[in-house]
Specification:
α3 (80-90) packs parallel to α4. The protein is built from nine helices and eight strands. The chain is of the alpha/beta class. The chain has a single domain (8-280), classed as Metal-dependent hydrolases (TIM Barrel), CATH 3.20.20. β3, α3 and β4 form a beta-alpha-beta unit. An eight-stranded parallel β-sheet has the order 1-2-3-4-5-6-7-8. Bound molecules: zinc ion. Residues 12, 14, 42, 97, 158, 208 line the site of zinc ion.
């Protein structure tokens, strides 16, 4: 075994969550020491856009994403779509978290679709990847994607919980599939089948910190999160990846290299995004011009 930890990419998380405020430097330090090189940090409503941008300015490993999550769409103010567009233009960033949800109780489906479509349009115009949330809304998502047409920079389905049968059709539309630590829960058989069905060039892993923690045995000790629940953190990614690898019939090193390459593919289109943190641990992004800079 090499001394350096594997280079890891946490494809979806929320470090702006106030639950990280008391000890953020320690959380970051544990992530770094465990080999996490990129953390794709998703805003959820207009209220946290500034915080996400601030974090990305301070922490080179953070890739910021700006968007409106379906649970928080009621927080948006008039003109949000213009502010979102300007923010994306001004920042090397992707769009997210955005999506559709038929699980959440206080949902407004007409508004959800409107806000999601608006965000897809912005992402298409600016050629940015989209970080998608989809819960119990797979048919609906397919219909909207059909209708909107090609998303030139692709999209990521975070914590993919859709059926394995949709992986083919979604891949054709440019989807990447990311799985969180909850896929290691023995009861999540359907999710595991999906994990095994994703093509090698479309698989990503995430923690969704502070949410979706892996089962107990894959957790680093951490302070309590919301309502006393375990607060998930990016340092858990090593244990998650190590446990996921045999499910994909790979060694952890093979899986880590694959995920790194896929992250380069997905994020490589973001103008001005500095992916150099990836260079210090793993193989360089073979398909991405890492020296590219500018707006
Ligand atoms: Zn999320």
């Amino acid at each position: 075994m090499a001394e350096d930890p594997m280079a890891l990419v946490d494809s979806h998380l929320h470090l702006q969550d106030p639950v990280f405020a008391p000890d953020f430097p320690e959380v970051l330090d544990r992530a770094r020491r465990s080999g996490v090189k990129i953390m794709v940090c998703n805003a959820t409503s207009e209220k946290d856009w500034d915080r996400v941008r601030e974090l990305a300015e301070q922490v080179p490993e953070i890739v910021p994403c700006f968007g409106i999550h379906p649970w928080y769409l009621r927080n948006r103010k008039d003109g949000w779509e213009h502010r979102l567009r300007s923010l994306l233009e001004a920042t090397p960033s992707a769009l997210g978290e955005a999506g559709l949800d038929r699980w959440y109780e206080d949902r407004y489906e007409t508004e959800q679709e409107l806000v999601f479509r608006e965000q897809l349009t912005v992402a298409r115009d600016l050629r940015r990847p989209v970080m998608v949330h989809c819960l119990k809304a797979w048919g609906w998502l397919m219909r909207v994607l059909e209708d909107v047409g090609e998303l030139p920079a692709g999209f990521l389905l975070h914590a993919y919980g859709g059926p394995a049968e949709l992986i083919g059709p979604l891949s054709e539309k440019g989807a990447y599939f990311s799985f969180a630590g909850n896929v290691l829960d023995e009861r999540k058989l359907r999710m595991r089948r999906s994990l095994q069905a994703v093509p090698a060039d479309r698989l990503l892993l995430e923690t969704d910190s502070p949410d979706l923690p892996p089962p107990d045995m894959y957790r680093v000790p951490a302070r309590a999160g919301h309502e006393g629940r375990y607060r998930n953190e990016p340092a858990n990614l090593t244990a998650i990846l190590t446990a996921v690898a045999p499910l994909r019939e790979q060694t952890p090193e093979q899986l880590a290299a694959m995920v790194l390459e896929n992250a380069c593919q997905l994020l490589g289109s973001v103008p001005g995004l500095d992916l150099t943190p990836l260079r210090s641990g793993g193989p360089p992004c073979s398909t991405t011009d890492l020296s590219a800079s500018g707006s």
